[in-house]
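For this section, I looked closely at the sequence of one protein beside the tokens encoding its backbone, which the following lines show:
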Amino acid sequence: MGGRLCIPAISPTTMSASTDPTGPERVVAAIIRDGDGRVLVARRPEGKVGAGFWEFPGGKVDPGESQSEALRRELHEELDIAVGACTFLPHYRAATPPGIDLAFWRVDAYEGVARGREGQEIRWCPPDTLPDLPFLPADRPILARLRLPSFYLISDVDHLGEALFEERLAQAAARDALLLQLREPWPASRLRAYAQHLRALLAPYGGRCIVNGDPNELMGCADGIHLPASHLARIDARPAATLVGASCHDAGELRRAAAIGCDFAVLSPVKLTPSHPDAAPLGWARFRELAAEVLLPVYALGGMTIADRVSAETHLAQGVALRSGVFGKDADLPVP
């Protein structure tokens, strides 16, 4: 029968490898979205361990099954749907204890109308509302990922001028809901005013603007705050913003961003960049090692293009952060 294991939580800042010599218990979970971007979640029914908690549908992988086979079987048993195409999400990592190997898959196509075949309540929820539900602790790190896009755009207003920048931004926003970081060498007063302008520009498209700088000077003017590494080192608590990101360059900064409760981090530089020619690139292998140390969503920055998204996700990134790759002279717009 279908049904996820009720998995207890571990520390949300680190992942532990299984030391069970018999091998971990393999479990699969599904991310299913509808045409409006809502995510399907299920509530564990009375009589099951963890009754009343919400979870992503899925269940145990039986001996001899592949993960995708188990996913299709479990979703048919639980939801009465026939899954077609599905994609493994290596960067979706939950707070599982040793002995549990929980793999998330995105369902790209299915047939049927989802219903709770085992008496469980199911619900289609906008990603921003999921943190309001009592989720299984192991699943909670996934909620942040569902609220974040694959591309994190960084402004280039000083180089392009406001008119051209906004034209290119609107082209990208019309194609996909964007997350934009306003990062310019401006005084706080100008940053505040322009952040409010960009927030209004993006809102009709479902996009969000967060501003890079001192939260004491910039709080409230945008949809969130992005902390430079220098500010991350000086604060002891998460700023009271809806969305908080942080710039990181090593394992210590990543751990600090996770410890204070940032929603995501940006790790750089992954590749050589013209803007920082003297900075030694991490490379994808080292990026993966660092990203694996935290459950925090981490964007790859430095020499990134739109085409790097798949490689980034393979190396445990939430996606790519890019500036010239979107707003530069040879930008490939709009964002897919």
Remarks:
- The chain has two domains: 25-142, 151-327.
- The first helix runs from residue 67 to 79.
- The domain at 25-142 is CATH 3.90.79.10 (Nucleoside Triphosphate Pyrophosphohydrolase).
